[in-house]
Automatic annotation (TrEMBL):
PANTHER family assigned: UNCHARACTERIZED PROTEIN YGJP, UTP PYROPHOSPHATASE
Coiled-coil ranges per UniProt: none
Name the record gives this protein: YgjP-like metallopeptidase domain-containing protein
Annotated source species: Rhodopseudomonas faecalis
Lineage: Bacteria, Pseudomonadati, Pseudomonadota, Alphaproteobacteria, Hyphomicrobiales
Annotated InterPro entries: UTP_pyrophosphatase-like (IPR053136), YgjP-like_metallopeptidase (IPR002725)
Residue ranges annotated for the YgjP-like metallopeptidase domain, each copy included: 40-239
Name of one Pfam family that matches: YgjP-like
């Protein structure tokens, strides 16, 4: 049978399996990947679930055995995920690294920031209260796109390359990506990080238009263009995973 045919999920193949660890039962999502050579597990930080990647010729039986052997790892990683912070009235979230409390206000549906006399910063959300999550999410994506576009085009001009497209998504495995055609994609959650972190990620992805790798030359290009590279990398290593808890329901 051709390898391509094996990539398609069999009609009877489940999308997830259940494994047990102690008294806990976990659902593990399955996915096949044509370049996978072995079974691997990772935790999706915003979906808060385990994902098992299977090679093209992998079987459900082997996948379940693999997941069961790593039940302790799954339980530990899921248990260490930061507490969810849903987008609702009263939640405090960072905007460009500065804490803002979400406050519901009467009136037409829009989102804006305010600062109280005591210095407390607010993210005000008007409209029906049940629409707070969507309005906050849309606002953060717009702000992220604006900041990332501005930083990316600035670095593109500095490095003498051209950015053709910028998109923002909820990426879980990496903060940004780049194609050789100049299309950049970023996680909208970067708007929650301090400004110098977002700025560094823009420099990083634009730097790939000069060097499509992570060679020493690439890091020299990025380091010369962005003086806060090491500081931003250290922040991401320490605090990056925490950004995935925002907008997640309890």
């Amino acid at each position: 049978m051709a390898v391509r045919a094996l990539l398609y999920r069999r009609p009877a193949e489940p999308h997830s399996i259940l494994i047990k660890h102690g008294s806990q039962v976990f659902a593990v999502r399955l996915r096949r990947h044509r370049r996978a050579r072995r079974y691997t597990l990772r935790i999706h930080p915003s979906d808060r679930e385990a994902i098992l990647t299977m090679p093209p010729r992998g079987t459900i039986v082997d996948a379940k055995e693999f997941a069961q052997r790593h039940g302790g790892w799954i339980a530990a990683r899921l248990g260490r995920l930061p507490k969810p912070a849903p987008f609702q009235h009263g939640t405090v979230l960072p905007l460009r690294g500065v804490d803002h409390k979400i406050v519901h206000r009467a009136g037409r549906g829009t989102v804006w920031t305010e600062t109280r006399d005591n210095g407390e910063r607010l993210l005000c959300v008007a409209g029906e209260i049940e629409h707070i999550d969507r309005r906050v999410r849309d606002f953060l994506k717009r702000e992220a796109r604006h900041d990332l576009a501005k930083a990316s085009h600035r670095y593109a001009e500095l490095l003498g390359v051209k950015v053709t497209r910028i998109s923002v998504r909820d990426q879980s495995s990496r903060w940004g990506s780049c194609t050789s055609a100049g299309s950049l994609s970023f996680s909208w959650r970067l708007i929650l990080a301090p400004g110098y972190v977002l700025d560094y990620l823009a420099a990083h992805e634009v730097g790939h238009l000069v060097e499509m790798n992570h060679s020493p030359k690439f890091w020299r290009v990025v380091g010369k263009a962005c003086p806060h590279t090491e500081r931003a990398k250290a922040w991401i290593d320490t605090h990056g995973n925490d950004l995935h808890r925002y907008g997640i329901s309890e």
